[in-house]
Amino acid sequence: MGELASHERYANFYTDFAFKKLFGTEANKECLISFLNALFDGKEEISDLTYLNVEHFGAAASERKAVFDVLCENPQGEKFLIEMQKAVFKRFFEQAEIANFSQEERRDYRESQKDFWDLFAVTETAEKKGRAEGRAEGLAEGEAIGLEKGEAIGVEKRNVQIARNLKAMCLNSEQIAQATGLTIDEINGL
């Protein structure tokens, strides 16, 4: 299929690739331990784990089964195996489903959500304000530099015109240089 839709921001963790990307790498080991401990809800504790990657490729999509096992160890040194697959996410989504929240949990969640969106709005507003201030400051600085350069060019042109007029009146180069601030070489070049 073609490129991902431009509106997608996060990977769909029901896909094999995304599931492994999040949970199947050594870099995300602490994330997986924390995730599994949250799923166990205090019934078991994992202090360390080892990845045992195993994949079953079938001829058809229905026969394919992405599996990677993790050998877990609890604080007492006991080891047990967890088969990581989409079933783990079933439990995760059950825990995350708002409909399963108690009234107090829903209230806390909505409050947390409100705080998140408030922070997001404040941050976005501050970024927009900062960009606007930066543009205004840059524009003002650019205008000041442009005005300064423009004035200098205008003064130079005016002095050259005055020098030409004085030269036409047959004043000598020293007198013209004194009146205009131009060098004698500049005057002689006119």
Relevant terms:
3 strands; rod-shaped; 58% helix; alpha+beta; 190 residues; 13% strand; 3-stranded antiparallel β-sheet
Verbal overview:
The chain is α+β, with helices and mostly antiparallel strands. Helices cover 58% and strands 13% of the residues. The chain is built from 6 helices and 3 strands, in the order ααβββαααα. It has helices spanning 16-23, 29-40, 86-96, 103-168, 173-180, 184-188; strands at 48-56, 65-73, 79-84. A 3-stranded antiparallel sheet has the order 1-2-3. A hairpin with an 8-residue loop joins β1 and β2. The mean pLDDT is 80.
Structural class determined from secondary elements: alpha+beta
Taking the sheet with the most strands, its summary is: 3 strands, antiparallel
In what order do the strands lie side by side in the largest sheet? 1-2-3
Please provide the ordered H/E string of secondary-structure elements.
HHEEEHHHH
Count of individual helical segments:
6
Percent helix among the residues? 55-70%
Low-confidence stretches: none
Overall mean confidence score, pLDDT: 80
| Strand residues, percent | 5-15%
Which overall shape is indicated by the principal axes computed on the Cα atoms? Answer: rod-shaped
Q: What value does the Rg take, in angstroms?
A: 37 Å
Q: Give me the count of strands.
A: 3
User: Ends: how far apart?
Assistant: 72 Å
